[in-house]
Design a protein that fits this description.
The chain is mostly helical. It is built from 21 helices and no strands. Helices cover about 70% and strands about 0% of the residues. It is rod-shaped, with a radius of gyration of 43 Å.
Length: about 500
């Protein structure tokens, strides 16, 4: 892309304020070409009188820097001076500056002419329109022409005018380069206001506030491209960027290089827009997660990917889905629950993310996420082992609403099943208590959990002791010793005995 940017800088560089001022520049530009074509008095004495056909001349035979005054005449390169100047300025008008230089050298070589001030003028004039690195050569050749031209002639004035113009352009280019460097420095430090002010000041001084394609492109880069490089920066105004794109589009004027750059900026705009929508969706999802609504958080992110027709990629699985599932598992574990289904969903998301790893950065992120997964998996295993030896009951980890709901569940499960009518009543109770469907399922598992082998053994002995309807002190001491040896807590013993006594 930089070769295209170079072209833009060169096109902008053609417009400058020379030392003679804006009015003088406008006046000179209007007459420069016509006068130059007739300058040097139409001196045909430079020609040897032979006719000249530029299309038949081999430009590759001309040395770029020197020529030999003693070379034999080339009969295929014969022309009078007027034909040469007409051809030369036609090439200048067509921006064929290299060919204009070759034409000049070829004409002087073919006609065995001594390099005079006209020769150096023609070289310097063409070089003055070329890229920045040719300006010093242009000034050197024009200065040589000035030193050789008669000071009292119109030719001398024309040479001086062109020399001043190139000096003005060189000043412009130097200021242009330094200005662009300052703008880039401001952007790097996120001082976008100063970057824009610097650009506007340059165009005010050198372009009379005429804003071209390059101006709008640079504004877009200040407020658009820079935000892409700093992904956390959400200050870009999308409406403003759309205005810059519209101005760029109006300045394309069929130029294929401009059109290509314009398309690239449109792609940048689209990326910023999608990024902004993602940030908004992620913010809303995080709010839901903070409130414990993890399924809603996942639903928001799914909706973002669906509406914007974005493929569910590495970011989706590792930064969005697995994250919210992990938070849900961690919250459940803190409550003393074992969210098996949720953990499996989290595990699936982690493994799915592995399929989309494409870069070293992705690999690093995945390794970090996988380490967190292994840690959480170990916590799940520990919690599961603890549940087997110390089953979870309605404890202090439950809210008052959950305890109430759990009590009703247990009542409904007395006969081992829950009828359709009981299900409807339980669902109404769940809604009135503000309990989610997922939490209700977890409480149902808690209410209908299976007894461990240790608990079954204890209940067998307890029921045997209760055969006569009561427990003697001696039987109580033996049962207490048994419960301790089996690792069953007193609270759980009370709950198990209550089941038998109902």
């Amino acid at each position: 892309m930089w070769d295209k940017i170079g072209k833009l800088a060169w096109e902008a560089g053609k417009k400058y304020v020379e030392y003679r001022g804006v009015d003088g520049t406008i006046a000179d530009i209007g007459t420069l070409t016509d006068k130059a074509k007739n300058m040097f008095g139409g001196n045909n004495s430079r020609s040897n009188g032979n006719e000249y056909d530029s299309d038949n001349y081999d430009y590759d035979d001309v040395d770029d820097d020197t020529y030999d005054d003693d070379d034999d005449d080339d009969d295929s390169f014969d022309s009078n001076f007027d034909d040469f100047t007409n051809e030369y300025f036609a090439l200048i008008d067509d921006d064929e500056y290299d060919r204009a230089i070759e034409l000049t050298k070829g004409y002087y070589k073919a006609n065995s002419l001594t390099r005079d001030y006209a020769f150096f003028y023609f070289l310097g004039n063409a070089q003055g329109y070329m890229s920045h690195d040719k300006l010093n050569a242009s000034l050197s050749n024009l200065s040589q022409a000035k030193s050789m031209a008669p000071e009292d002639s119109e030719d001398y004035g024309m040479v001086c005018n062109r020399l001043d113009e190139v000096k003005g352009r060189q000043e412009y280019c130097v200021n242009f380069d330094s200005t662009m460097k300052r703008i880039d420095e401001y952007v790097a430090s996120k001082d976008y206001e100063m970057a824009e002010a610097t650009l506007s000041k340059f165009y005010s001084k050198y372009e009379n506030n005429v804003h071209d394609f390059f101006y709008w492109m640079k504004l877009f880069e200040i407020h658009g491209d820079s935000r892409m490089e700093n992904s956390d920066d959400e200050s870009a105004d999308l409406n403003q960027l759309e205005e810059y794109l519209q101005e760029m589009s109006d300045c394309v004027n069929g130029d294929p290089d401009y059109a290509e750059i314009y398309d690239e900026k449109v792609a940048v705009y689209d990326a910023i827009k999608v990024s902004r929508l993602y940030a908004d969706a992620k913010r809303e999802a995080e709010k839901m997660a903070d409130n414990g609504e993890f399924d809603r958080a996942i639903q928001i992110m799914d909706e973002y990917y669906r509406v914007n027709e974005i493929t569910k990629d590495f970011c989706y699985w590792i930064s969005d889905i697995s994250r919210f599932h992990r938070l849900a598992v961690e919250q459940a574990l803190k409550k003393g629950e074992i969210p098996t289904a949720r953990f499996e969903a989290y595990q699936d998301a982690i493994f799915k993310a592995k399929e989309f790893v494409e870069s070293e950065n992705d690999e690093s992120l995945y390794e970090t996420a996988f380490d967190a997964y292994k840690e959480l998996k170990a916590r799940m295993a520990t919690a599961s082992d603890s549940r087997e030896s110390h089953p979870v009951q309605a404890s202090d980890s439950l809210t008052d609403s959950e305890r109430e709901y759990l009590t009703e569940l247990k009542e409904c499960l007395e006969d081992g099943t829950i009828s359709e009518r009981e299900n409807r009543l339980l669902d109404r109770l769940r809604k009135s208590l503000g309990i989610s469907e997922q939490r209700a399922e977890e409480l149902k598992e808690m209410a209908s959990e299976k007894l461990t082998e240790a608990e079954k053994e204890y209940l067998t002995e307890y029921e045997a002791c209760m055969a006569d309807g009561q427990i003697s002190d001696r039987e109580r001491r033996l049962l207490d010793k048994l419960s301790k040896s089996l690792g069953i807590t007193p609270a759980r013993i009370a709950e198990l005995e209550a089941k038998v006594n109902k």
